[in-house]
Structure formats: structure tokens, C-alpha cells
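Standup notes, protein team

Yesterday: finished cleaning the Streptomyces benahoarensis set.
Today: PIG-L family deacetylase structure.
Blockers: none.

Input for PIG-L family deacetylase:
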Amino acid sequence: MSGTDSPDGALRVLAVAAHPDDTDFTAGGTIASWTGAGAEVTYLVLTDGSGGGEDPTVPRADLAARREREQRDAAAVLGVKDVRFLGHQDGLLRPDVALRRQIVRVIRQTRPHRAVIQSPEINWAFLPDLHPDHRAAGEASLAALYPDARNPRAFPELLLEEGLAPWSVPEIWVTTGPRPDTRVDVSETFEQKLTALRAHVSQTAHRDRLREDVRAKLAGQAALGGLAPGRLAEAFQVIRTDAAAPAAPSHP
């Protein structure tokens, strides 16, 4: 197998997150840079997002529908055309075998060269990263990527009933973890990221200092990564799954 089976050599990326807006907050600038370079990105959102929002009088079903629309709008800003939802209840996500199977199905359907996932580890330095859904999403995603998606003995019914062959994902880019080792300069895509975050109206409309807060966080990561003053960066821990995996196409 070569590095890509896509006729145009495009990088394919699968971003898995617990809630609508999670990927946009942690990796939106990086996603925009990848799509701008021709990558094909799929979002997989595991919960319905019905546990968020500032107004407790809004019915869960209404909020879930609204958050799905917001995520589709935000993804479009970043150049993401394929957005999928599993619809698990927000706040009750569990990294069980059933969830792993659902993620494996999407991995085998989209055949990505790179996955962006949340960390299953606790990052004590930043309180929002402690959300149990985030860590459950990270644990289930990691198990789905390695070893499940590549293992022909894992969920054989996906092959027998749906024709979904095993697939190895060469790179895993972990967000929100305690040990980032890679910073991506997102100075040029900051405005796209911010516009995407503002599309999540139910989550960000009340944040008067959204621009300042996001810029400060990205500036801090840029400084930690040794970038020049004034630059902005998103942070990841990048993992190669094994030396035998197909190389991802060369993109930022």
C-alpha cells in the first residue's frame, strides 16, 4: 500500500471529539491550514452537545439540533465538508466496546492518514480539559485507532457485512494532553478559527473576550514552542503508530 490511495494524493484527516466545538477550539487553525493545502477532513462528533449552553430552559433536543447546525456552519468556515454525529448523550459518554466499534466504522469508511483526537490523560494545567467526556472520547478513539481499526479480528462483521476492510492510520495528533511536543503556527488562520468559534453561538455568544482569550492561549503555546513573538500556535502530541504504516502525504 502506498502513502495514499487517493488519485489526487490528498491528505485525509479524521478529527474525533466528544462535543460540537471541541475540535474547533483545540485544532481549528490547524484544520484550516490543512484544508487550505488540499486536505480532506472529516469531523466525527460523539455526543449530541445537549449538556452545553447557557440557558437551562432550552429543551435538550432543541439544543442538540442547534449545536449540530452550529458545528456544520463552523466546519464549513474551516473548509470541512464531511461532518458526522453519533448522538450519544452529552455528559454520559463511556469508552466502551460499542463506542469503539462506531469509531472504527468511520475510520474504515474514511481511511484517514492522520487522526486528531482528544487526550485520554488528565491535563491538570487547564480545567476545561478535565471534562470526562473529553477523556472518554480520547480513550475510545485511541483504542479504535490502535489496535482495532487495523486488526482484522476486531469487529469482523464490519468487513463481512459492510465491506469495511482494516485500515492503519499512520499518525495520531493528540490535543489537550499534558505533554504536547508539536506546535503548529496558526497565525494566518486565526481569523478563520475565530469565525468558526463564533458560529457556535450557543457556546460563545456570551463570551465578550473570546478573541482576547483565544489569542492569549495560542500566543502562550507559540512561546512554549519557540515561535517568534506575535505568532500564534496550537499544540499537539504527535504519535506515529508504527514504522510499517503508510506514510501520510506531505502537508503542514
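Follow-up from PR in the comments: The longest helix spans residues 60-77.
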